[in-house]
């Protein structure tokens, strides 16, 4: 049997400090949740962002 292809899903990066949805990504399902240090324009500094599905 042929393997089924996993479609990319839209994932949001949410700031841990403010809770704002600042970034969106296309990513394959599975694996660990992302935790990246990204720029937050509301606070005007780099903060930690967590991956969330809306």
UniProtKB/TrEMBL annotation:
GO terms for cellular component: cytoplasm; ribonucleoprotein complex; ribosome. Keywords: Ribonucleoprotein, Ribosomal protein. It holds the Pfam family Ribosomal_L33. It comes from the Bacteria. The keyword Ribonucleoprotein applies. GO terms for biological process: translation. GO terms for molecular function: structural constituent of ribosome. The keyword Nucleotide-binding does not apply. HAMAP family: Ribosomal_bL33. Belongs to the bacterial ribosomal protein bL33 family. This is Large ribosomal subunit protein bL33. It comes from Allorhodopirellula solitaria. The gene is rpmG.
């Amino acid at each position: 049997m042929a393997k089924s292809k996993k479609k990319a899903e839209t994932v949001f990066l949410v700031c841990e400090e403010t809770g704002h949805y600042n970034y969106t990504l296309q990513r394959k399902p599975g694996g660990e949740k992302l935790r990246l240090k990204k720029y937050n324009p509301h606070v005007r500094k780099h903060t930690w962002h967590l991956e969330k599905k809306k």
